[in-house]
């Protein structure tokens, strides 16, 4: 039977830290503590005491913050004939961002596309009726993650 010993260290360190020694476990988990380059070492020993080792290098990157939709509308209540400005804005995730703008009467089920999959961060919307509208802004980052915000817009005569 073989026994395994597992070690790790930051690539800039000189000494190894023992994760698990002299075990028959053929795999273990390693959760890095910081975003740096790590060296991982596995030492295998057979029943006669002969050993072989392998060193692996793992680069740990800092995780991107979650994508947040920070979009806004200039008003949530307007008189018929007025326009509202919809501002697409995002943070986190992985830029660049794409924005999609939609609207519908609140009693409708289907959304109307105002502008889709664009880098444009500001669009104008002029309601055609004195009803409540829903305005939807969807932001998508370069990795395909998306976040949606929906606003209610009350239009009076």
At a glance:
The protein has about 160 residues and is mainly β.
Comma- or semicolon-separated keywords:
four-stranded antiparallel β-sheet, five-stranded mixed β-sheet, 157 residues, 14 strands, mainly beta
Query: How many helix segments?
Result: 0
Taking all Cα atoms into account, the compactness measure Rg is 28 Å
Count of extended strands: 14
What is the terminal-to-terminal distance? Answer: 84 Å
* Arithmetic mean of pLDDT: 96
Element order, helices and strands?
EEEEEEEEEEEEEE
Assign a percent range to the helix content: under 10%
Structural class: mainly beta
The main sheet orders its strands as 7-14-13-10-11
Query: Which runs of at least 5 residues are low in confidence (pLDDT < 50)?
Result: none
Global shape: rod-shaped
Sheet of most strands: 5 strands, mixed
Oligomer: single chain
* Residues in β-strands, percent: over 45%
Protein model, in words:
- Helices cover 0% and strands 54% of the residues.
- It has 157 residues and is an all-beta fold.
- Strands 7-14-13-10-11 form a 5-stranded mixed beta sheet, with no helix packed on it. A 4-stranded antiparallel beta sheet has the order 2-1-3-4, with no helix packed on it. Strands 6-8-12 form a 3-stranded antiparallel beta sheet, with no helix packed on it.
- It has strands at 3-10, 17-23, 37-45, 51-59, 68-69, 72-73, 77-79, 84-87, 90-91, 98-105, 112-118, 122-125, 132-140, 146-156.
- It has no helices and 14 strands.
- The chain is rod-shaped, with a radius of gyration of 28 Å.
């Amino acid at each position: 039977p073989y026994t395994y010993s597992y070690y790790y260290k930051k690539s800039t360190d000189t000494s190894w830290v023992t994760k698990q020694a002299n075990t028959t476990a053929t795999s273990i988990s390693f959760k890095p503590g910081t975003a740096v380059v790590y060296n991982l070492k596995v030492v295998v020993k057979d029943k006669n005491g002969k050993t072989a080792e392998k060193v692996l290098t793992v680069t740990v990157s800092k995780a991107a913050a979650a994508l947040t939709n920070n979009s806004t509308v200039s008003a949530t209540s307007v008189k018929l004939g007025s326009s509202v400005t919809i501002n697409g804005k995002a943070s986190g995730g992985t830029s660049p961002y794409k924005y999609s703008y939609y609207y519908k009467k609140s009693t409708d089920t289907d959304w109307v596309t105002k502008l889709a999959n664009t880098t444009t961060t500001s669009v104008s919307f002029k309601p055609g009726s004195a009803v409540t509208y829903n305005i939807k802004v969807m932001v998508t980052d370069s990795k395909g993650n998306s976040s949606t915000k929906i606003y209610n817009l009350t239009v009076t005569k």
